[in-house]
From TrEMBL:
PANTHER family: CELL DIVISION ATP-BINDING PROTEIN FTSE (PTHR24220:SF470), IMPORT ATP-BINDING PROTEIN (PTHR24220)
Domain ABC transporter: from-to ranges: 2-223
Name of the featured protein: Cell division ATP-binding protein FtsE
Origin species: Tabrizicola soli
Keyword Cell division: yes
Annotated keywords: ATP-binding, Cell cycle, Cell division, Nucleotide-binding
Origin superkingdom: Bacteria
Any one of the GO BP annotations: cell division
InterPro entries the record matches: AAA+_ATPase, ABC_transporter-like_ATP-bd, ABC_transporter-like_CS, ABC_transpr_LolD-like, P-loop_NTPase
Pfam families named among the record's database cross-references: ABC_tran (PF00005)
Length: 223
């Protein structure tokens, strides 16, 4: 689905990420961990082509990023759902309208039944008409996840999707991610939370990537 070959990235100083080679296979579930500032968000940005590697190759859905036109990149990105760390919404629009935004911007109609089902799935149907500032942290995180999956992407990349929520809510969000994986979605979750990773590994086959010393390596089973 997404592959890195000898990828390096630098914001201008020294290399933040060096010689990264890995492949996210269809249907796989990966965690990405590492200390604050190690480059987790940067890695995700490379994976959804918001950033181009300084060297090396990123391949999205079997096509090398460098060979893609701007339209091709946009098409590939539509197959990737992103849950951003800061879950931004348009505060003057209802939750339901925010959810429908990916359809609005691409001039497509959203199916009201799909929208209802999706909001029920994340436990937010009763808040469909609420404005984003009225939502709690956990509700925002679940709304961000719903927004990422509404266009039925093949891959979901989530940046700290359980940041700023309590353990019970973290487990609820994890359950949603596990359900998505069981439906066949390829998932990558950046997180600091090793307890969350342990919990996930008890339920599914998840691999753990760790950023250390500017490299991304597969962690052993000793988490
Ligand atoms: N646009 C940018 N320009 C320059 N430096 C940047 C930029 N974005 C991030 N950095 C730097 O790159 C490093 C990695 O940042 P990144 O956000 O990828 O780390 P992270 O592992 O996701 O951190 P956290 O866990 O705190 O979210 C940090 O030192 C950060 O300051």
């Amino acid at each position: 689905m997404i592959a890195f070959e000898n990828v390096a990235y630098s914001y201008g100083g020294g290399e933040l990420l060096t010689d990264v080679s890995l492949r996210l296979a269809p249907g796989s579930f990966h965690f990405l961990t590492g200390p604050s500032g190690a480059g987790k968000s940067t890695f995700l940005k490379l994976a959804y082509a918001e950033l181009k590697p300084t060297s090396g190759r990123v391949t999205l859905f079997d096509r090398e990023l460098a060979s893609l036109t701007r339209d091709d990149v946009a098409r590939s990105r539509r197959r990737i759902g992103i849950v951003h760390q800061d879950c931004k919404f348009l505060d003057h629009m209802t939750l339901a309208a925010n959810m429908a935004l990916p359809f609005t911007v691409s001039d497509r109609e959203s199916d009201p039944q799909d929208m209802d089902d999706l909001l029920s799935w994340v436990g937010l149907k009763h808040l469909a008409d609420a404005l984003p500032p009225q939502l709690s942290g956990g509700e925002r995180q679940r709304a961000a996840l719903a927004r990422a999956v509404i266009v039925d992407p093949d891959v979901i990349l989530a940046d700290e999707p359980t940041g700023n929520v309590d353990w019970e809510m973290s487990l609820r969000i994890l359950t949603l991610l596990v359900e998505l994986n069981r439906m066949g979605k390829t998932i990558l979750v950046a997180t600091h939370d090793l307890n969350l990773i342990r919990q996930a590994k008890a339920q599914i086959q998840a691999r753990v990537l760790r950023i250390a010393g500017h490299r991304v390596q597969l962690a052993g089973a000793d988490l």
